[in-house]
User: Which sequence fits this backbone?
C-alpha cells in the first residue's frame, strides 16, 4: 500500500469523528470571522491544524486556508498516526497549502486575515512565541482553549482526557486559567475583543471550552464581549 493510500484510509476511518468536531468548531467561529459577503481577502492560517478538518471545512465555505503544524514530537502518537495522515489527505484533496515548521513562521507580516489556534497553545513549549508569530502574520487571532467554569484551568481529569483523546505521552500540557491566558495575550501585544464559553461531554466527562477573539492592543473592544452558554 502506498503512503497516499494509507493516509486516505486513515482519513476515511477518522472522518466520522473529525467532520462533526470541525462543524462544531466552525459554528463557534462564525460570529468572530468576516461575513460571507466579504470574500475578498478571506485568508486564514490554521496554526496547529491537527487533522485539518476545521481548515478544510472553512475552505469549503469560501476561505483561502493554509494548514500549518509542527513535525511530530516524541510521544505525540495521535499526531503521527492520525492527525498528519488526515491533514495530508485533506490538503491534497482540497488543494490547500500545508507547511510543517518550528519556530518562526515562513510567511511575511500580515499575510492572513485571521490566524486560528484551536486547542493548540496548551501543547506549545513556548506559547508566547507562538502567539507573537500568529499576531505578526495576521490582523486578528482566534484562540480556543479548555477552561472550566469561572475561568479555572482544567483539573487533572481534564488533562488526562486531553492526553487520551490526542493519544499523547509526555507531551506538553500547559493549561492555564482565564486570568493567565489574558496575561499571556497582553504580553503578545493582543487584547480580548470578545470571548465566549461553552461545555461539551467527550466520553461523558463535562469539559469547558473558551473562545478568545483577539485583536492588536489599542483597538477599541465592543461594548459587549461575546456570548456565553
Assistant:
Amino acid at each position: 500500500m502506498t503512503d497516499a493510500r494509507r493516509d486516505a484510509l486513515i482519513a476515511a476511518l477518522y472522518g466520522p469523528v473529525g467532520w462533526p468536531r470541525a462543524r462544531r468548531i466552525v459554528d463557534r467561529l462564525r460570529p468572530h470571522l468576516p461575513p460571507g459577503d466579504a470574500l475578498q481577502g478571506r485568508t486564514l492560517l490554521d496554526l496547529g491544524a491537527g487533522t485539518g478538518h476545521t481548515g478544510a471545512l472553512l475552505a469549503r465555505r469560501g476561505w483561502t486556508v493554509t494548514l500549518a503544524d509542527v513535525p511530530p514530537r516524541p510521544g505525540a502518537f495521535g499526531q503521527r498516526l492520525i492527525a498528519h495522515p488526515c491533514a495530508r489527505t485533506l490538503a491534497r484533496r482540497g488543494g490547500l497549502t500545508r507547511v510543517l515548521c518550528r519556530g518562526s513562521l515562513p510567511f511575511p507580516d500580515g499575510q492572513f486575515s485571521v490566524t486560528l489556534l484551536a486547542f493548540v497553545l496548551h501543547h506549545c513549549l513556548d506559547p508566547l512565541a507562538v502567539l507573537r508569530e500568529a499576531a505578526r502574520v495576521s490582523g486578528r487571532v482566534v484562540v480556543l482553549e479548555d477552561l472550566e467554569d469561572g475561568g479555572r484551568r482544567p483539573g487533572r481529569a481534564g488533562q488526562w482526557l486531553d492526553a487520551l483523546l490526542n493519544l499523547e505521552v509526555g507531551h506538553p500540557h500547559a493549561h492555564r486559567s482565564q486570568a493567565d491566558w489574558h496575561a499571556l495575550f497582553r504580553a503578545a501585544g493582543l487584547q480580548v475583543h470578545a470571548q465566549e464559553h461553552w461545555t461539551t461531554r467527550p466520553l461523558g466527562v463535562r469539559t469547558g471550552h473558551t473562545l478568545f477573539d483577539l485583536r492588536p492592543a489599542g483597538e477599541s473592544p465592543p461594548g459587549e464581549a461575546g456570548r456565553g452558554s
About this structure: The beta strands are 43-47, 64-69, 97-100, 112-118, 138-146, 190-200, 207-216. DSSP finds six helices and seven strands in the chain. Confidence is low (pLDDT under 50) at residues 223-229. The first strand starts at residue 43 and ends at 47.
